[in-house]
Design goal:
Helix content is about 35%, strand content about 25%. It is an alpha+beta fold and about 200 residues long. Strands 1, 2, 3, 4, 5, 6 and 7 form a seven-stranded mixed beta sheet that branches. Strand 2 and strand 3 (about 70) form a beta hairpin. Helix 1 (about 5-10) runs antiparallel to helix 2. The longest helix has about 35 residues, at about 165-199. It is globular. The N and C termini lie far apart (about 45 Å).
Length: about 200
């Protein structure tokens, strides 16, 4: 993953997306080290908020080190093309859903959170969040980094959650709703154009 690609992704993200302005400053100050686990105690990670197509359910993993339920995600690897690629790869690995795809590749938020000593040298993550829509009947599998993976209703989440998670989840769901509306209107426009050119 190249620093320029990450910088471009964050620059193209709407300033209203939570945490993105601070993340731009962090990356500008730390450069390439901000992208790598070995680059320092604070670095970027990427995650994916997975929702059912009706946005009523979300897929969470019970994080082994953290001891809490959270969206799927993790550290960048050298072969990842960009943060969206990291989020997609991690979501597939941690959910077991091999064909999972991001909804549109837009960043929905960035959350900086401190980590306890169980995370080793990592003291804080700047987590960049994306969104995917997945059929809840998809077969899931628990990864080595989790103790469980399970669907929950968005209005009936488990108790063991990071403090910022419920707010992030609702913001991600709103972003997914907006993206789905936009995709539907684009499809309608395309169909109208095709019909007009065919006539």
């Amino acid at each position: 993953m190249r620093l320029a690609d990450v910088t471009t992704t964050l620059a193209r993200t709407d300033d209203d997306a939570p945490g993105v302005v601070a993340a731009r400053r962090f990356v500008a100050e730390h450069g390439d080290a901000a992208l790598r686990r070995e680059g320092g105690p604070e670095h970027l990670t990427a995650s994916c908020f997975v929702f059912s197509p009706d946005l009523g359910q979300t897929l969470l993993c019970l994080h082994r080190k953290g001891g809490f339920w959270v969206q799927v995600g993790g550290h960048a690897e050298p072969d990842d093309r960009d943060l969206a690629d990291t989020a997609r790869r991690e979501a597939r690995e941690e959910s077991g859903i091999a064909d999972l795809e991001l909804l549109d590749g837009r960043v929905v938020d960035v959350d900086r959170h401190d980590l306890h000593s169980g995370f080793g040298v990592c003291t804080a993550h700047w987590d960049v969040g994306f969104v995917a829509l997945v059929d809840p009947s998809s077969v899931t599998a628990v990864s080595d980094e989790s103790d469980d993976v399970r669907w929950f209703r968005v209005d009936d989440l488990p108790d063991a959650l990071p403090s910022t998670f419920p707010h992030r989840l609702l913001a991600a769901r709103e972003a997914a709703r907006d993206a789905a509306r936009h995709a539907a209107s684009e499809a309608t426009r395309d169909a109208a154009r095709n019909a007009a050119s065919a006539g």
